[in-house]
């Protein structure tokens, strides 16, 4: 059986540089910065007071007031992004066989805000005050389930949780569902809302976050020698994947073709990568092999690029290992410099970036490129976006647990 072709026909985003896709796209290529002081809780007793918050999100633009009360913030983000993706796709779901339409949705942590809120309530007023929506709001599959309910989807529907690789895993599994004939259309992506006391506090305890509180705009500085950790972001990214002939018949706009997917694991450490990046390199090579794409035909990589001491050197080494001499010709950038690290949703938002980059034939910048690390010596598209001939592009995501996932997009032939 030959594998079917898959294309991207819908995009949606909620982020700190734009609550909708058009605002996000303009902010992305302009190098806008969405990192600032935390406003959603009192961070006084923590060493970190900055994040990539979504500060003007109104859930009632996307769901009724009653629905909003029954949804954790990460699910509100999921519904907002997926509705945008549907609207942008031009699909009329009433004309589709909804048994052939599914959803794979990612989150690394799920309903952390609901867990904190209900725990405080139970301690203060007793366990009888735990509400009936507590479990349905916090569970990681709430995003996938609520998207299916919103659109009446009857096809494959499930959640993925693999830390910061979750978003890319969701995309890869949705891609394969269409490739192998299990679906014609898939909503896929991820959402995260962990700018909370426990979320920020937990990463502080790991010593994983930047403490550059006095200069939040330059706190996330991937591939710089003085980087001191990542900045937590929040939001969602959603894509509509569609079987190519189905999209062609209805005259859909195609942002990019989904060409390949690869995944591996380090099998090494729960929170640190293999220093040489061997398993990460293998994930990239598997994506290229899946897409039958020679390394020299890749022009851009959206890097995992967390701004942590270990990741950025490892990823640079992995790219060199996978691409050899061609690594020097690649444009590589980290959009986490603009919006922070969205954890389980990062791969999803960065896949939206990848699709926009292929469509616009431009690479977004790595902002805050101030003091290059000699060990990170590739072309990281410093500070300004760049127009370029972009045939194929990769997006990398690596997560605690050693999870590595790479997805390959390209121009539609």
Textual characterization of the structure:
The protein has helices at 21-30, 65-69, 73-89, 112-125, 134-138, 142-151, 166-179, 197-205, 244-249, 278-290, 309-323, 336-339, 346-360, and strands at residues 6-14, 36-37, 50-51, 101-106, 157-160, 185-192, 235-243, 256-265, 300-302, 331-333, 362-363, 386-387, 392-399, 403-410. By secondary structure, the protein is an alpha/beta fold. The strands form 3 sheets. It has a 10-stranded mixed β-sheet with strand order 5-4-6-7-1-8-14-13-9-10, sandwiched between helices. Strands 2-3 form a two-stranded antiparallel ribbon. A two-stranded antiparallel sheet has the order 11-12. Helix 7 (166-179) crosses helix 13 (346-360) and helix 10 (278-290) packs across helix 11. The longest helix is centred in the N-terminal third of the chain and has 17 residues, at 73-89. It starts with 5 loop residues before the first strand and ends with a strand.
Detail the topology: elements first, then pairings.
Elements: E1 6-14, H1 21-30, E2 36-37, E3 50-51, H2 65-69, H3 73-89, E4 101-106, H4 112-125, H5 134-138, H6 142-151, E5 157-160, H7 166-179, E6 185-192, H8 197-205, E7 235-243, H9 244-249, E8 256-265, H10 278-290, E9 300-302, H11 309-323, E10 331-333, H12 336-339, H13 346-360, E11 362-363, E12 386-387, E13 392-399, E14 403-410
Parallel strand pairs: 4-5, 4-6, 9-10, 9-13
Antiparallel strand pairs: 1-7, 1-8, 2-3, 6-7, 8-14, 11-12, 13-14
